[in-house]
Write a structure and sequence with these properties.
Elements (H helix, E strand, L loop, with lengths): L17 H88 L11 H7 L3 H6 L1 H13 L3 H14 L4 H16 L11 H10 L9 H20 L2 H16 L1
Length: 252
């Protein structure tokens, strides 16, 4: 203890007054609280960020998957639809082309009276007699159609028709059509000709005439005579026609 009037010792700390002590006691906890609150807030934010990040990533991944799947789905559908559409169009075009060839590209048979029994019997004697009559050509042409070689008869008939023309412009037009229909390698009705005959035709087409296709016509005529005619004589078409006419002759 120091006596009254003695100055305080240098090492002694001044005692806090009651107001100061109360203020300090109130300030201490109050000062600590903001820092704790900040730490807590930071932790909460970190935890919430950590929890939200996987969710967001998962959501983004899901969204990406949906997007890619949607794109893939759309692409596949579009591709499939396109492929199906093209395929259907090709099939429809092939059917239409085949129908057009049958309906438009093939001329009607020649008009002729019904053949007699004598005429049908004469067809068996020679190929020339068969080709002389319209009824014989029609019957033979019907048989060629079953063998998918009707273009041979059509070409031969077109050449015969060309020989009857005298007008120069008509001859040139018909010669061009015959070439496109039966000589061109792009035509579905191309006839079978050797290279020599094709060279002759190409030269003749420089100045078309009634005889531009004479060599080709003779070659096709010979082909039908040697190849198709024997089979025609043994075909059901010829035998049925001969039997029918024979029965009618007996009944009469």
């Amino acid at each position: 203890m120091r006596g009254a009037g003695e100055p305080p010792s240098p090492g002694a700390q001044p005692a806090a007054t009651g107001g100061e002590a109360g203020e300090d006691s109130r300030r201490g906890p109050a000062a600590d609280t903001p820092m704790g609150s900040e730490r807590m807030e930071m932790r909460k934010r970190q935890m919430s960020t950590t929890q939200e990040t996987p969710g967001a990533a998962q959501a983004q991944h899901s969204t990406g998957n949906r997007g890619s799947n949607a794109c893939c789905f759309c692409w596949c559908c579009c591709c499939s639809c396109s492929c199906l559409t093209v395929r259907n169009q090709d099939e429809e075009r092939a059917r239409r082309t085949s129908h057009e060839l049958q309906a438009e590209g093939i001329p009607n048979c020649e008009e002729s009276p019904a053949p007699t029994l004598e005429e049908v019997n004469a067809w068996a004697q020679s190929f020339d007699k068969l080709m002389l009559t319209p009824a014989g050509r029609n019957a033979f042409r019907e048989f060629l159609r079953t063998e998918f070689s009707e273009e041979n008869m059509l070409f031969w008939m077109a050449c015969e028709e060309l020989k009857q023309e005298s007008n120069k412009s008509v001859i040139e037009e018909k010669a061009r059509l015959i070439y496109e229909d039966y000589i061109s390698i792009l035509s579905p009705k191309e006839v079978s000709l050797d290279s020599r005959v094709r060279e002759v035709i190409n030269r003749n087409m420089l100045e078309p005439s009634q005889h531009t296709f004479d060599d080709a016509q003779l070659q096709i005529y010979t082909l039908m005579h040697r190849d198709s005619y024997p089979r025609f004589m043994n075909s059901a078409i010829y035998k049925d026609l001969l039997r029918s006419l024979s029965e009618k002759s007996i009944e009469a």
